[in-house]
Amino acid sequence: MPWLAVPYTDEARRSRLNRLYGIQGMFLHRCIPTLIVLDPQGEVITRQGRVEVLNDEDCRGFPWHPKPVLELSDSNAVQLNEGPCLVLFVDSEDDGESEAAKQLIQPIAEKIIAKYKAKEEEAPLLFFVAGEDDMTDSLRDYTNLPEAAPLLTILDMSARAKYVMDVEEITPAIVEAFVNDFLAEKLKPEPI
């Protein structure tokens, strides 16, 4: 590790940092091991440093500023446990569909992220596009979601709740209304 790190033996400092950054243990909100990347002023760049290192071994994307929309994969699926996540399931057998889906929800994700950043708060949602693979199939099975594509969902694993919008066509207006209704607590959750 070429970066500064808290020695494992320094329990007092580790405990303070765990409280500060919400690191609680393996199955709770943020997991151990965790790598949080900070800027020189001590502001969080990403809480997903561990995932980023695993996906970018050459560190070409360092310091890994968060992307507004992620393509769901085995390596970043752990983020689904961090809080509510909008997941747009698409038929990825069409090569351009995943990219088109990301571009469809990216402006909405950027708007939400900017709104909460201005209030110095974390965004209340993470945004994902999920194609068709074994990991996505497992997620659909676990959450009891239909095989439909496109399928717009918000999954809140910690609350064991899901919100589903099954429509023929997903448009920016539909996504934005779905997100706004979720944030305004107008949607009725279904159990996972």
Automatic annotation (TrEMBL):
<dbReference type="GO" id="GO:0005634">
    <property type="term" value="C:nucleus"/>
</dbReference>
<protein>
    <submittedName>
        <fullName>Nucleoredoxin</fullName>
    </submittedName>
</protein>
<dbReference type="InterPro" id="IPR036249">
    <property type="entry name" value="Thioredoxin-like_sf"/>
</dbReference>
<dbReference type="GO" id="GO:0030178">
    <property type="term" value="P:negative regulation of Wnt signaling pathway"/>
</dbReference>
<dbReference type="GO" id="GO:0004791">
    <property type="term" value="F:thioredoxin-disulfide reductase (NADPH) activity"/>
</dbReference>
<dbReference type="Pfam" id="PF13848">
    <property type="entry name" value="Thioredoxin_6"/>
</dbReference>
<dbReference type="GO" id="GO:0031397">
    <property type="term" value="P:negative regulation of protein ubiquitination"/>
</dbReference>
